[in-house]
Amino acid sequence: MAGGSEHFRRLQRLRSSKDFRRLSREGRRVESRSFVVLSAASLPGDTTRARLGITVSRRVGSAVVRNRVKRYVREWFRRRGDRIPKGKDYVVIARRAARELDALRVLRELDSLLEGVCPGGQHAA
User: Fold this and answer.
1) In terms of Cα–Cα distance, which of 64, 63, 65, 77 is closest to 107?
2) Do 43 and 103 touch, CB atoms closer than 8 A?
3) Integer Cα distance of 32 and 108 in angstroms
4) Packing angle between helix 103-117 and helix 63-79, nearest 10 degrees?
5) What are the angstrom distances between the C-alpha of 104 and each of 2, 11, 27, 43, 109?
6) Are the CB atoms for 71 and 31 separated by under 8 Å?
7) If pLDDT is split at 50, 70 and 90, which confidence band does 42 have?
8) Residue 23 · residue 38 · CB < 8 Å
9) Alpha helices (H) along 2-83
10) pTM of the model as a whole
11) Burial level of 16, CB count in 10 A (0-12/13-18/19+)?
C-alpha cells in the first residue's frame, strides 16, 4: 500500500469536540457534492503529523452505510499520508451523496478537495 502506515493511530485522530469546533470556526473550507473538508493549522508545537476527524450524520444512511463511508475516508487518509501536509488538522464531513460512492471515487473526490485546502501546491505530489 502506497503512502502512510496501515493503521489509523490515536495520534492521527481528532477526538475532542473542542478541536472540531476550532476547525469549524477557523478552518479553510472546501466543498463538493459528497464532502466538506475543513483544514486549519494544528496546535502550536505539533508540526510533525496531520490529524483527521470524520463526521457522518444519520442523514447519510444506516450505521452500515455510515461506517463504510468512514472506512473509505480513513483509507484515503492512510493512502495519501505522504501528500497530506503535516502540522495541519482536517475534518471531513460526509454529505448524503457520499453513500453512493465506492472507495475509488471517494479517493478521487477527497484528492481534489485536498487541492482546494492546499492551494498553490503546498503538498508533495
Assistant:
1) 77
2) no
3) 11
4) 60
5) 14, 26, 26, 32, 9
6) no
7) confident
8) yes
9) 17-26, 63-79
10) 0.83
11) exposed
Assess contact for 94 and 73: CB atoms under 8 A. yes
If we measure between CA atoms, which residue out of 96, 54, 51 comes closest to residue 73? 54
Residues 56, 70: contact at Cβ < 8 Å?
A: yes
Interval 105-124: pLDDT, tens: 999 999 999 888 776 544 44
Q: What are the φ/ψ torsions at residue 2 (nearest 5 degrees)?
A: -75, 155
Q: Which residues contact 59 (CB under 8 A, 6 or more apart)?
A: 96
**Bridge partners of residue 40, in order along the sequence:** 89
**Structure confidence at residue 46 (pLDDT):** 67
Strands of the 51-56 sheet, one edge to the other: 28-31, 35-41, 88-94, 51-56
